[in-house]
Backbone:
């Protein structure tokens, strides 16, 4: 009981009256962020090679670790990373040009911010088509070459998936908006208020 009272007293100092942390995030938001990162690291790590293992000082448990627990990951905001064609925007071929540098840094996984087709109202996070690459960044062939060359260097490519919203130009949203009955499967893809 003494421990609980101490925790409760300290917790109150870090939260406001509504239960939000002083950083502005609710506990549910922090938990959701942790789950999203977990899904990104586990569920989306299917592209690429085994990756570079981080050096371990102890050999206990290293063999039981998943690949994403043993590699250095590097996040790339594609739009500003490396421009290969002189249009002022980073692209997939620009990342390919820097793979040697990333390999020398000991990077075992590259986490790409969204490169899907998008109207770019929300910096690519407003996905219009999950099956196409934004022409600003290159083509599907460029993505295939990036994955292949990264694989040769032992670097995995992890794609950032935006699960919680899409662009209003996304086919799924348009089908859902047209649905006369919101009870069908298409109508259940999105939450409508009012």
Residues:
């Amino acid at each position: 009981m003494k421990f609980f009272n101490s925790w409760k007293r300290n917790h109150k100092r870090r939260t406001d009256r509504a239960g939000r942390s002083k950083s502005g995030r609710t506990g549910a938001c922090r938990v959701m962020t942790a789950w999203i990162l977990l899904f990104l690291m586990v569920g989306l790590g299917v592209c690429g090679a085994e990756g570079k293992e981080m050096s371990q000082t102890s050999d206990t448990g290293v063999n039981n670790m998943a690949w994403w627990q043993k590699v250095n990951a590097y996040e790339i905001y594609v739009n500003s990373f490396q421009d290969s064609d002189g249009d002022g925007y980073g692209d997939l071929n620009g990342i390919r040009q820097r793979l040697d540098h990333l390999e020398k840094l000991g990077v075992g996984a590259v986490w790409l911010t969204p490169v899907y087709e998008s109207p770019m109202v929300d910096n690519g996070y407003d996905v219009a088509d999950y099956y196409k690459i934004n022409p600003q960044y290159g083509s599907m062939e460029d993505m295939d070459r990036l994955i292949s060359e990264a694989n040769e260097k032992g670097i995995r490519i992890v794609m950032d998936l935006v699960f919680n919203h899409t662009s209003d130009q996304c086919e799924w949203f348009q089908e859902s908006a047209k649905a006369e009955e919101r009870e069908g499967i298409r109508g259940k893809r999105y939450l409508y208020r009012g």
Notes: The chain has two domains: 25-54+69-163, 165-194. Residues 165-194 form one domain. The first strand starts at residue 72 and ends at 76.
